[in-house]
Structures are given as C-alpha cells and as structure tokens.
Amino acid sequence: MKKPKWVVQKEQQKRKDAAETVWLFGLHAVRDALANPKREKLRLIVTKNAANKLAEAIAESGMTPEEVDPRKFNAPLDPQSVHQGAALEVKPLNWGKLSDVAIADDDRPQRLILLDRVTDPHNVGAILRSAEVFGALAVIGTRHNSAPETGALAKTASGALERQPYLRLRNLADTITELQSIGYLVLGLDGEAEATIETALADRHDAPIALVLGAEGPGLRQKTKETVDQLVKIDFADAFGSLNVSNAAAVALYASLPRKT
After folding, report:
1. Contact between residue 230 and residue 204 where contact means Cβ atoms under 8 Å apart
2. How far apart are CA 193 and CA 185, in angstroms?
3. Closest Cα partner for 166 from 211, 127, 196, 134?
4. pLDDT value at position 224?
5. Which of 78, 91, 119, 120 has the maximal Cβ count within 10 Å?
C-alpha cells in the first residue's frame, strides 16, 4: 500500500532534521559549545593561535582538533564570518517541548519571550543574551519564519545559546493558547496599544508572563493580536520613540519583573 503524501513528507523532514548540523564559529561561541555537555560535537577546526586560547576547553571536551594554517582555514563558513580561527560542527540543541521549559524549577519570576516572524539571527542572538541576563525561562519562535540555530546567531548570543532554551514550535497561536491554559498572562508588544507594560501588569508582576514581539516593520500578525490576552507598549519619553526588536525585548523583560521594595 502506497504511503500518503503527508506521511512521506514527514519522514523526509525527519531524516533531514536528523542529518542537520551547524557550524559555530568565534572563540566565545566555540568555547561555550565545547563546555556544554548537552551539545553533540562533531568536528573542530582551529588555527594554532585559537587552539592555544581554547586549550582548556578542548582538553575538557575530549575532542581532537584539526589544526590548520590561518591562510587555509577550510571550515565551510561564509567568507564574511569573523571566525577568529575556530569553527565547530555540532548538532542543533534539543530543548524539548514547551511543557519542559514553561514551568520554573526555582523561585525566579516565570517569564517567556515569544517571537512572531523574527528572522534575523543577530536579533535573535541578542534576545537570547537579554533573556539569560533577565532570567527568562525560554525564547520561543516558530519552525518557519523564525531564525534557525546558526553560527551567526550563536556568535551574537555570545554563549547564551548554550544555556538559554530556544525552541521553534509549529504554531505560535497554539503555543499562546497552551500557555494561557497553564496560567500564563500573554502580552503582545504593539506600538499602537493604549496600555503600557507597567499599567497592564499593575499588581500582577508575580504572575507567569509571556511577552510576544513581532518583526521590525510588520510587527505582530493579526492572528497573534487576537490570541494574546492584551496588547501593550513600551512607555517612551517621546511620542515617536522606537526600538529594534532585540532592544525592545530587553526593555520589556525588565519592565515585567517584580519591583523590589
């Protein structure tokens, strides 16, 4: 019996995902990946200078690096990549399901960042850094129309990719609904909203809160706006104030945290 087309496509995608690898580059990104026991590491290419700087991390990882001449650095990277003489081929990290990351196992405020069509890896990398700094449980995008795990994203994240959960789920509206069902207050960032983050939260800073940010320019999709609990804005000093999405994520996270008395 011939398999249905959707079954064949699903199997093909599964095989493709299993074969997928990522090349990380730059001293910081490579060092943190080498130190991450959850990261499956496949191949390490370094110059002598980079090998010296990464000596401790390489030794602890148990990997045998391929040492190359700086003029013949043969890792398959974009020519514009600032690799600093180090490149590491790895498997993408698997952070599990939404339910694995949405509930804190400590007493920190429960915060999530959701991304609606944010495709720039540099923006997502910067958001991961902010998420780690402000204690967010995870950053969540979609399988399509969001930045995949890449060397550029990892370098911008400056190590945060190895520690900060980054999930790409099938459907953002379904993710929002699932979070609402377990008690999350889901706020969508929209410059035309009437309420600010502070006024929307008022006495609710201790609640689990998910902040949804859209791509620069188009912002949140209409479906996303209709699914969140409330649209909010960052309170700018000037009526025409604006931030790029990575800066907005940092400010929104900070504004959502409980104030110490």
Report:
1. no
2. 16
3. 127
4. 98
5. 120
